[in-house]
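Box 3.1 A note on notation
Throughout this textbook, protein chains are presented in two layers. The first layer is the amino acid sequence; the second is a token string describing backbone geometry. Keep the layers aligned when reading.
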Amino acid sequence: MTSDCVRAAEILNRDCQCVSVDRDTLRRALAQGEDGTDMVRLVEEERPHLFAEATVFLGQASVERMAEVVAAVERVAALPAWAGRVLDWAPQAARHACGAAGVFMGYDFHLGKDGPQLIEINTNAGGGLLNAALAQAQVACCEEVAAILPGVHPSPTLEQDFVGMFREEWRAERGGAELRRIAIVDEQPREQFLYPEFLLFRKLFERHGLTAVICDPAELRFEGGVLQHESERVDLVYNRLTDFGLESPGNAMLREAWLAGAVVLTPHPRAHALFADKRNLTLLTDESVLGELGVDAATRGVLLGGIPRTRQVRPAQADALWTQRKQLFFKPAAGYGSKAAYRGDKLTRRVFEEILAGGYVAQALVPPSARRLGTEEAPVDLKLDLRNYTYRGRVQLVTARLYQGQTTNFRTPGGGFAPVLTVPRIEGV
């Protein structure tokens, strides 16, 4: 991809060294979501590398290309034949159909030499509300950035869009009934790295007239056909769990209530099965399978050009995989957050043997691009990946994560969530 805007973004990511985050504005944006001093402490003292120090630049052509890939995946996932294939390897709960689509889908990309490449899909992508606050805390750090700064800001109605998304999930299953109470659910929520975002969501819901609680799934009770938290009815659960099939004993009440249609759950096991199981990428990058599913030629072209070839790891292919390992990235099929994922060139024989037995996929390696920080005398290159937050196939927000090491980690000085500034095309080019 050699568009003028793509080249300009590459130059800015390499040469624009200035810091563009207004920390005071960011503190105010976070503080309004909870008791101010407590929220700032949670972020600045306990999670000092949550937010990066710089903006990432991205050509408009790349933004448009990512949206095309998202739309192509969504078209395939809507085919009845697709569900027939992927539900074969999904947890039992995923066979339960419902009207909700799933909030905060996350499509993660690396920038390859041929443009953005989709490396994975997540159904409970965290960070959307944190990134909305971060994007509003940007300042023009040089004339070049000042000229395009409006491109960094998400829609001024983004918060309303987020709340509207939950209301749409509710209407899809409950029609005109009133949504009153939402539970934001995760295991030991106070111990989660993104707990500050749970607090922001609670306050967001409350600002829009909804009661909201943050709780562990073990605090929920399903009695008399009603899901309850502290004896109060829960209408909708914003699911931040990583037990995607709700198979853990601690999630039994939530699972039972959802299967009984007693609560609207978003995202839910079926959404994960249709989109986020890593084995799905093996189908999306297999032209013959796409043809069997009835995917049209144009959509096949977008998928095959926008997703690195992915295949299931099978012990019978061990020798070939070991030989090719330096060109591969290995991921567990039901993994999340880069846990137990490995670059092939970093593998030991011991870990490779575990991969062969552990339900992995092998994806053609697309190295992440870089954002250069520091000074001319002491530059620091941070790796970057891009996340598209979407709902029902519509991209709501594009952000980046900066890091050093094998995978995103939120432990890199200067790294963390970073806003994306779109570099527009040059007219007439």
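DSSP finds 16 helices and 18 strands in the chain. The chain has a mean pLDDT of 91.
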